[in-house]
Amino acid sequence: MTASQVYKEVKNGIRSGIQFYSGQIDLAEDLFQHSKKLLEVRRQERSQLIKGFEHKDSLMNEKKLKMQLSQYEQPKPVYFIFLFFYLFLFIFFFKKKK
After folding, report:
1. Range of the domain at 48
2. In Å, how far are 19, 41, 58, 60, 81 from 47, measured between CA atoms?
3. What is the CA radius of gyration of the chain?
4. Structural domains in the chain (count)
5. Which pLDDT tens digits describe the chain residue by residue (98 residues)?
6. Listed residue (75, 59, 79) closest to 67, CA to CA
7. How far is CA 29 from CA 19, 33, 35, 36, 59, in A?
8. Closest residue by Cα to residue 56 from 68, 71, 64
9. What is the end-to-end Cα distance of the chain in Å, rounded?
10. Whole-model pTM over 0.70
């Protein structure tokens, strides 16, 4: 083998290696970009899930609070108005009959 043949063989080997590793770099860059996109999508999903859980939790707390407050609710003032109205009518008619 002559020196020029060895040179050409080495040159072709280097060229093949450069092409191979250039392709590997492109694959690694694509993988990196896809990983970044997947990570961003997962972060968005996580934040949506957290918001959903917080909303459900706040609704449950609101329901519990309403149930607790309903135990202590006062009678509606409308009932007292009717009671006083009927009491007034009773007294008014009772005094007229005497």
Report:
1. 3-97
2. 42, 10, 16, 20, 52
3. 43
4. 1
5. 899 899 999 999 999 989 988 889 988 999 999 999 999 999 999 999 888 888 888 888 888 888 887 777 665 666 667 777 777 777 777 766 55
6. 59
7. 15, 6, 10, 11, 45
8. 64
9. 144
10. no
